[in-house]
Specification:
- This protein has four domains: 65 residues, no CATH class; 75 residues, GMP Synthetase, Chain A, domain 3; 63 residues, no CATH class; 51 residues.
- The chain is built from nine helices and 13 strands.
Length: 275
């Protein structure tokens, strides 16, 4: 492997709410929001510097690092805009080819590399798609390399965007860089009704926001009995039928009585002021 000879590194993103990638440079003057041309595995691309140039540090496992080619010129920026228009036209051509061949796939976006040496078509499909004939068809229309990339429903939601059930723009398209695992246990920790339809986002998967407060809800539930547990209150046996962790209140009931009580009254040994 070639030894890295850069004096500085910069962190570059290629779109809003996108993951940052590390690139090597000998330019110590690069600053936040500078546009740069970089070499990626896809080819030449224009990205935005997210942090000022930093002194180069050895990467884990002697990882090879791609270079910053140059600061983006006006010609580069004009090419980016021109490529966007060309990609929209290419997308229509690809959609027509997909329809002609009756392929079960849905095109999401198309994107050219800076020098138009490659075009990437992004699509979603329920199963694997045999697109060999589609590639042959597209090769007669585009004089460049062609890549067809299948993505999952969560990545699709990130690209397409939209509003979540909270009324705000979806987290994945607004600020998320990576997708973390979200499990139904996180909904259980919040004592939510296990209605998968209501707990799912636009991607059809469990909403990412279930993960954000999971640690806090685990802490609030520490030391509490499970729902439907039997407890004794003022000499009578009750069943815990619901709990509101934010208000610190519980509903207990038996055949003769229903009570709504504060946690501090049911479990006075716990210091609730610290939760």
């Amino acid at each position: 492997m070639m030894e890295n000879t850069y004096t500085h590194i910069v962190y570059v993103s290629f779109s809003e709410a996108s993951k940052m990638y590390t690139f090597g440079t000998n330019d110590a003057t690069l600053q936040i929001n500078d546009k740069v041309v970089v070499e990626t595995v896809r080819g030449l691309e224009v990205g935005t510097v997210m942090k000022d140039s930093q002194l180069f540090q050895k990467l884990p496992n002697d990882m090879e690092i791609k270079p910053v080619i140059r600061k983006a010129t006006q010609k580069d920026l004009d090419a980016v805009e021109s490529n966007k228009e060309a990609a929209l036209k290419a997308m229509k051509v690809c959609e027509e080819a997909i329809e002609r061949q009756g392929l079960d796939m849905r095109l999401i976006e198309a994107e050219y590399t800076l020098d138009r040496s490659k075009i990437i078509f992004v699509y979603v499909a329920d199963d694997r798609v045999d697109f060999r004939e589609l590639l042959k068809d597209l090769a007669t229309k585009f004089k460049c390399r062609i890549e067809l990339r299948q993505i999952g429903p969560r990545n699709k939601a990130k690209i397409v965007g939209g509003l979540g059930s909270c009324g705000m723009e979806t987290c994945c398209s607004r600020f998320m860089n990576d997708f973390d695992v979200v499990s139904i246990n996180m909904a259980k920790n919040q004592l939510l009704a296990l209605n998968v339809q209501k707990l799912s986002g636009q991607c059809g998967k469990l909403m990412c926001c279930l993960r954000y407060e999971d640690a806090q809800y685990k802490e609030m539930r520490e030391g509490l009995p499970k729902l439907n547990s039997q407890i004794e209150y003022k000499g009578n046996r009750y069943r815990i039928t619901s709990m509101n962790l934010l208000l610190k209140q519980a509903k207990i009931e038996n055949k003769e009585d229903v009570q709504f009580l504060d946690f501090s009254e049911l479990w006075p040994d716990i210091d609730w002021s610290k939760r």
